[in-house]
Amino acid sequence: MSRPAYDDQNIFARILRGEIPCNKVDECPHTLSFSDIQPQASVHILVIPKGSYVDMADFAAHAPAEEQAAFVAALGRVAHQVGVAESGFRLIANTGQNGHQEVPHLHMHILGGEPLGPMCPRPS
Ligand code: 5GP
Questions:
Q1: Does the beta carbon of 34 sit less than 6 angstroms from any atom of ligand 1?
Q2: Residue 94 near ligand 1, beta carbon < 6 Å
Q3: What's the 12 CA to ligand 1 centre distance in angstroms?
Q4: How far is the CA of 101 from the centre of ligand 1 (A)?
Q5: Could you give the count of Cα atoms lying within 13 Å of 93 in the half-sphere of its Cβ?
Q6: Residue-wise pLDDT tens digits, 42-81
Q7: 48 pairs with which residues across the strands?
Q8: Residue 44 catalytic?
Q9: Ligand 1 neighbourhood includes 93 CB (under 6 angstroms)
Q10: How far apart are CA 33 and CA 58, in angstroms?
C-alpha cells in the first residue's frame, strides 16, 4: 500500500521538534499529548504519535504494532490524567478532506469535562 506524502513543516511536526511550544500533558517514547490551542470543550487534549503519519489510515496501515499499542495506551492514560475517564469523553480523529482534517499529522482529539451533546450534526 503506497503512503501519502508527509509534510514535515506541519504544525505538529514543528511542536515535536520543539520549534513551537505546547502545553504538554503527557509524553511517552511514542506519543505526545498537549492542550488544543482553541479548545472546543472544557477539556480538549490532542494525542499524537511521534512518528510521521498523516492520518489514521496511514498509521493503521504502516505504524509498527508497538507504536499503535502506545497510541491507544496514551489515549486511556491521558483520559484518566485529565479527569474525564469516569465522566465520559469523545475521541475524534478528523481524517482527510471530507473529515475536515486541518493538520496533516495524525492526532486524536479528547473532548470532555462537560456534556457534549449528540455526536455530529449533518452540515447544512
Ligand atoms: P483538525 O481539524 O486537524 O482535526 O484539528 C487540528 C487542531 O489543532 C485544531 O483543534 C486546532 O485548534 C489545533 N491546533 C492548530 N494549531 C495548533 C497549535 O499551534 N498548537 C496547539 N496546541 N493546537 C493547535
A1: yes
A2: yes
A3: 8
A4: 10
A5: 19
A6: 999 999 999 999 999 999 999 999 999 999 999 999 999 9
A7: 32
A8: no
A9: no
A10: 19
With a 6 Å cutoff on the Cβ, whether 86 touches ligand 1 is no
Q: Which three cell numbers stand for residue 21?
A: 511550544
CATH topology classification for 23-82: HIT family, subunit A (3.30.428)
Query: How remote is the C-alpha of 47 from its chain's centroid?
Result: 4
**What's at 29, amino acid-wise?**
P
User: For residue range 94-121, what is the model confidence (pLDDT) as tens digits?
Assistant: 999 999 999 999 999 999 999 999 988 7
Q: How far is the CA of 103 from the centre of ligand 1 (A)?
A: 7
For residue 104, give the amino acid letter.
P
Rounded-to-integer distance, Cα 47 and Cα 91, Å: 10
Q: Which regions of the chain does DSSP assign to beta strands (E)?
A: 24-28, 31-35, 43-49, 89-92, 108-112
Return the C-alpha cell found at 10. 506541519
Break the chain into its structural domains and give their ranges: 23-82
